Amino acid sequence: MPNVAHSPLVISSRLTPSPKSASPNVQQVALGDIVFRTWYPSYYPEEIVGRDIDRLYVCQWCFKYCRELSKKVSLVTAVAKANCNSQKLCQARVEPPPGRLIYLKGDYTIYEVDGEEDQLFCQNLSLFAKLFLDNKSVFFDVASFNYYLLVLSPPDDPHAEGQSQVIGFFSKEKMSWDNNNLACILVFPPWQRKGLGKILMGLSYELSRLDDRVGGPEKPLSELGRIGYLKFWQARVAKAILEMKNKTTLSVEEIAAACWMLSEDVVSTLREMDVLGTKRKNDGSIVVSKARVREWVTSNKVDLAPPVDEDGFAEDYLVEEEV
Questions:
Q1: What is the pTM of this model?
Q2: What is the pLDDT of residues 156-191, one digit of tens each?
Q3: Among 221, 234, 155, 170, which residue's Cα sits nearest to residue 200?
Q4: Cys staple from 6: which of 151, 188, 189, 292, with CB 3.0 to 4.6 Å?
Q5: DSSP letter assigned to residue 22
Q6: 47 an active-site residue?
Q7: To which H or E segment does residue 288 belong?
Q8: Above 90 in pLDDT, residue 80?
């Protein structure tokens, strides 16, 4: 597989990090047999990684890591021999990802991992993610978070040996007093610009709905995070508005309830869409024009199909959430 050089940011691989960011302590990372550049420093231990290395080898299944051993040794074997307790291949290669399967749709599955039960995996995943995130990555206190892994799998056999690949994730506090439904999100660089970030965002709001709790991502958002979320929110809000066929005007509160979004996020989204009406209701509520929303969707050619299918959730997960 050829080397990949993408800008590893949360949503778009064509966006570049802030020039004020610190220089990476790892210049390139080899995830399995794919090599690509990093953008930010991570907190890998200096006694193992050093202060500045050209390339770090990371196991594509368990995210354990090592320095280069020999150019004659394959990337997967080098990682496995050094850090995965296997003579040939990482044991995680022949097992499903940690945690439990909660969603399956087409080529993609999502696993929920408890940071307390799989601390080493979540710590290594967070260290890897920090190479592509400027200011968000929890790797010591993983026990208070759940991690949701986006896994690329063969559509006919999601557990096919050696085929499943974690390509992104988001973390979520188990108990958030601010009702945050997402703390940290990343789609790995080789799989960016495929709309996969929307799946992770969509899942976070579906979890809010299942918890019967309105929420949103942890604030403040980075500039790039705001761009990505704004696109997601716009499609979500427009879909909710146009599905309310019996109403010609809607209040922000009604839209927020339909989307399981915070009112402040709905307002900022509507302002960006420029669909707020000039009139207000008697109680002072802002009024949204459905006609302007419909015109906005058409002119911007927005796909209103939901990124997450409710039917894709594992039945036992839905039953447990409803209890």
A1: 0.84
A2: 555 555 568 999 999 999 999 888 999 999 999 999
A3: 170
A4: 189
A5: P
A6: no
A7: strand 286-289
A8: no
